[in-house]
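Follow-up to my earlier ticket, as requested here are the two runs.
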Amino acid sequence: MEKKFMKITISLLVIIASLSACYPGNKFQRDSIAGIIGTKVICKEPGRYIGWPTITRTKYNELLIVFSGNRDAHICPYGITQMVRSHDNGITWSAPVTINNTPLDDRDAGILETKSGTLLVSWFTSLAFDRPDQYKKHPDWLRHSEKLSEDIKKQWLGNWTRRSTDNGKTWEEPVRQIASAPHGPIELHDNRLLYVGIGTINDKKSIAIEESKDDGKTWNLISTIPNPSELLVQNLWEPHALEVSNDTLIALVRYNSTDKADGYLHQSESYDGGKTWSILHQTPIFGFPAHLLKLKNGNILAVYGVRKEPYSERACLSKDGGKTWDIENEILLSQSRTGDLGYPSSVELEDGTILTVYYQIDQPGEKACLMGTRWRLK
């Protein structure tokens, strides 16, 4: 009986090992070019939902993360823009403070520290909750909506940035933008700010390029990114751009095909500082949306969420300025139980490690929280 039990156990182990070798996520462990140091919760609001964070590292080596917090769910009326801080490279974090609390749903927060020391936060407001099917499930949402006059909706619905010149102690009045993207504007070598986002131009959805020459006080539309005829513009979302070298930029754009089969990031390039852009083309990276970062060694890092099994946060490198992506050595940063995850962004710390932050569910039965993975390239 004992020998028979041992044979069955060995057979089961062989089967499990065989299945493991075939499991799509297994390649990350076998071929990984990175080492995961640890994953931890950065901010959890009990009973509330957190989403869509962006991290930045300031010139004083402070880490700042902004996100949409105090939410009921992925869609709800109550989202606000919040920020947490770390003075010890992400070991400990402050309690969240509120930056924006408009009458509408404040979503998708981005943050940038400009060379002048100005903090620039971006976000957009939404009325996605304003639907009869939502009110049947959430009567309190209807009571909230009834307080929103048409004038209030007209005043606050849109895309926004706002500045702080005292490290976030106070914030200037919001500035309306044409476009929006989860991780906000970037700063170029010539001190211009560039915002690549999704907006409406002449009543048509477009990938808009806005420019600021006065540290984010005012903005002008300077360009759009063209898309090939086979890509439906309504399926394009949530770009992020990076200056690879002087006047050379790349942008990655989320693409949601109608049948959900095509979730590959698409890319465009600019060689004149964002004035003109190449037609979008597909990359080998499946996931969305992306955040781009140029590492100290010159490599380009893209991080993104994958909402198909295995649900996860992942990373991919380019060693040639975005011309090609090393998808064969895709890096698994963190796995999740559900597909309600993602929007990662990264900073490189002084010791060469990388901190990538994102939102996902920590424990079963909880709502999404703010999490971070610290890791290093081998």
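Run two:
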Amino acid sequence: MRLTVLGKSPSFTDAGGACSGYLVEAAGTTLLLDCGNGVFGKLRARHDHLAVDAVLISHLHADHLLDLVPYAYALRYSPRGEGSGVRPALHAPPGTQEFLRRVVGAWGDERLVEGAFDLHEYDPDGTLEIGALRVRFAEVPHFTRTFAVDITADGGRITFGADHGPALEVIGALAADTDLLIEEATLLEPEPEPPRGHLTAAEAGEHATRAGARRLLLTHFSDELEAGSLRAEAERTFGGPVGLAAEGAVFDVGGT
């Protein structure tokens, strides 16, 4: 299984960057995990967007889904997309259809996204089979309903924490013994007041330790932060290898 980072920025994009977006490929199946602002252009630079089997959204914040809009326009109206009949599956949290109709309906056809994609609102307590990929979920604490995502294929596992505050037990259970745990490192210091919705790099390391992850990948941090310091903070609390997400970075897990 191969993971390619398309975007790793927090809620505001790095210079020339993109927000949350990861391409997961295994045994002929291609999944786009999150589709935040800037991600669609990064996807097009590396992969044929008409050949993506499915898109999976972790939660309904702009930096994790906003580029569903240009993606939908390309599927419906671009020279290659129009008339192609291509409608990738879109797996998204409960309430997505109503949410997207409100957002897109503010300026145009409220059914734009659901007309371009085959929309399914997933059951967070269930398991998804997307081609060669097996997907499980766990709800994590954030400022809107949010789900961490565990993906198994080709004898390997990738667990994506999405955005969340401290959730040691939840991530520890979902990501137990995972090959690659992707955790946010948004903050330099913990948020002073509850509710907590984000992590520091040191807290990301604590979650990787609780899960017994083989590798930790830090993401969702600004280019205004010193990346080496973030890595050092995570290494202080996690004894395994710590990587830093960067656009275009590729990680192989299990078989490819």
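The only thing I checked on run two: The mean pLDDT is 97. Let me know what else you need.
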